[in-house]
Design brief:
Largest sheet: none
Strand content: under 5%
CATH superfamily of one domain: MFS general substrate transporter like domains
Structural class: mainly alpha
Family: Belongs to the major facilitator superfamily. Sugar transporter (TC 2.A.1.1) family.
Subcellular location: Membrane
Membrane topology: Multi-pass membrane protein
Helix content: over 70%
GO molecular function, one term: myo-inositol:proton symporter activity
Shape: globular
Radius of gyration: 25 Å
Number of helices: 21
CATH architecture of one domain: Up-down Bundle
Organism: Salix koriyanagi
Length: about 450
């Protein structure tokens, strides 16, 4: 998402990658088939942002209760946490390929449950199922790609998984926009998510297990057969020997520190170098989440509406810029991270994030301070000079929501010439949201 990351590679490695996959298309078939897991991750992140607009229209409880909206959005993340933990166990016990297949099944049924949901609570159940699938696939896909790729182009192929995530987000916004006028709107948006899962399931049925996992389970002949499809004939034995050394070293470490997740973590923390690297990595991942990029991606159309664009379709169209810049940022990082270094790129990125978060905070505070109050007390007190004359004549004013206020044509939340056009300050808000997504 927004959540997760990818191994990076320089331009030389990408050139070598292109040459290798051109000679051996089977390698790209492995990488792209597994990379659909990243696409599922990205699609689930982005699709709910647009679907939520129409879910609110269909269910009054969702429109009025922000905690219900938050539950619908966040349950996928909760499911992903469980899915990632269980996926680790599945990877070790039954293999990477089985874990991806299982994730596809869970994700597909989750998408169907959401598409046919008769009430918000069934949507939440579907979101949990989708989250389980996303959690399993998001940690298994890069693992499978790395273990089924030649070492010299491994970084380049794993990098494509990160691009698939941001590409999936962009695709979800496109599909959301395509279904804005279709009967069922949000049901189609959420249901279409099952298609990539079916495609990946079919493709993975014809692909092999990870050679490293097979060797780890003493299925050496099967591992050799797969390596023969990936490497030139004269490199197979060398790769098999390297695999043997790696697995033997892993088993030796397990004999010392013990098997199981807890034992491995304790062993890693005892190593000073590993411990410092682990702390740095965790800090970066936590900071990445706390900058608020997930909020931007999950609620981009809603934020755009709060910025004054009251139309659902206009908000979705403008949100394409957010997801598009996010995808472009992934490509930029892949191209320049080895030229300028991880640290420099991260410092530049964090500086941009801080700058635009400050702008967002200031303009939202200004909008809140200067916006005319809309409420029973204020309107009754001012009478004909009410800050919102439309509120006085509305038969159902106590039931107004934020979107109703935006459409009230009070000359601040919306432009006097058009109820779905923003005022100047809201253009600044929208610009800041877009730039935040780019700097992330």
């Amino acid at each position: 998402m927004v959540e997760g990351g990818a191994t990076t590679a320089d331009r030389t490695e990408f050139t070598e990658c292109w040459r290798t996959v051109w000679k051996t298309p089977y390698i790209m078939r492995l990488a792209l088939s597994a990379g659909i897991g990243g696409l599922l991750f990205g699609y689930d992140t982005g699709v709910i942002s647009g679907a939520l607009l129409y879910i609110r229209d269909d269910f009054e409880d969702v429109d009025k209760k922000t905690w219900l909206q938050e539950t619908i959005v966040s349950m996928a993340v909760a499911g992903a946490i469980i899915g990632a933990a269980f996926g680790g166990y599945m990877n070790d016990r039954w293999g990477r390929r089985v874990a991806i297949l299982a994730a596809d099944i869970v994700f597909f049924f989750g998408a169907i449950v959401m598409a046919v949901a008769p009430n918000p609570w069934v949507i939440i159940i579907g979101r949990i199922l989708v989250g389980l699938g996303v959690g399993m696939a998001s940690m298994t896909a890069p693992l499978y790609i790395s273990e089924a790729s030649p070492a010299r182009i491994r970084g380049a192929l794993v990098s494509t998984n990160g691009l698939m995530i941001t590409g999936g987000q962009f695709l979800s916004y496109l599909i959301n926009l395509a279904f804005t006028r279709a009967p069922g709107t949000w049901r189609w948006m959420l249901g279409v998510a099952g298609i990539p899962a079916v495609v990946q399931f079919v493709l993975m049925l014809s692909l092999p297990e990870s050679p490293r996992w097979l060797y780890r389970k003493d299925r050496v002949d099967e591992a050799r057969a797969i390596l023969e499809k990936i490497y030139p004939a004269h490199e197979v034995e060398d790769e098999l020997n390297a695999l043997k050394l790696s697995v033997d070293a892993e088993k030796a470490d397990e004999a010392i520190i013990g098997e199981g997740m807890i034992a491995k973590v304790k062993g890693a923390l005892k190593n000073r170098v590993v411990r410092r690297g682990l702390y740095a990595g965790i800090t970066v991942q936590v900071a990445q989440q706390f900058v608020g990029i997930n909020t931007v991606m999950y609620y981009a159309p809603t934020i755009v509406q709060f910025a004054g664009f009251a139309s659902n379709s206009v908000a979705l169209a403008l949100s394409l810029i957010t997801s598009g810049l996010n995808a472009v940022g992934s490509i930029v990082s892949m191209c320049f991270v080895d030229r300028y270094g991880r640290r420099r790129l991260m410092l530049v990125s964090m500086t941009g994030i801080i700058f635009f978060l400050v702008i967002l905070s200031v303009v939202f505070m200004e909008a809140s301070s200067h916006a005319p109050k809309i409420g029973g007390v204020e309107s009754a007190h001012f009478g004909s000079n009410s800050t919102c004359s439309a509120y006085l004549t509305a038969p159902d004013a106590p039931r107004w929501s934020c979107m109703t206020c935006l459409k009230a044509d009070c000359a601040f939340c919306a432009n006097a010439a058009s109820e779905v056009s923003p005022s100047a300050i809201h253009c600044i808000i929208t610009f800041s949201v877009f730039m935040l997504s780019n700097w992330y």
